[in-house]
Prior knowledge:
By secondary structure, the protein is an all-alpha fold. It has helices spanning 30-48, 60-81, 85-108, 117-139, 144-166, 169-199. It has six helices and no strands. α1 runs antiparallel to α6 (169-199) and α5 runs antiparallel to α6. The longest helix has 31 residues, at 169-199. The radius of gyration is 17 Å and the shape is globular. Mean pLDDT is 91; it is low at 1-5 and 8-23.
Amino acid sequence: MASTVPPAAPETPSSPPPASATGTGVADPAPLGLGAFATTTFVLSCFNANLINAGLAGVVLPLALAFGGLAQLLAGMWEFRNRNTFGATAFTSYGAFWLSYALLARYVAPTLPLATAHQATGLYLLVWAIFTVYMTVAALRVNGAVLGVFVALSMTFILLAAGEFAQSADVAKAGGWVGLITAVIAWYASFAVVTNATWKRSVVPTWPLS
């Protein structure tokens, strides 16, 4: 295993402001969810890519609980209020991913048998890879920025899962690097949505697909 914390990458994307949002009194939660996803993913991916000493990986857990987990979960609830099915599903799911990851890393992983722990971690990452791949299909009707997040995130989960099952540090490291790319794309999407909403016009392109 590349670090003492099970590798993962996280979480999560969004969608364009739904037409119904204007009259609901709820602001578009997408920039919050994307920013939370990007920040937590970037920090963890630095460890997965072996850019920072693995002994410091515990710093990911507070981010996973508070920002990647709780903030993104709240963004998902607000997307339900805005009747945005894609955003609600994505943010709620990846918020739950980060919360479960923090629990896994802190309480479960240390108790697993060393000889076979990689199989459990690989399975955990594999099911998230499957979920992310089918969400990528839905993202084809959102916008280019969000689609980029999901394509990169799918590759991240697949590489990290393969690295765990094969016990290959090099494959897991590649997953870390793709995770860094995922975080940068998500930061861009968050920046675009919040900037366009604040300026009340299209300043930063997101390339709508629907």
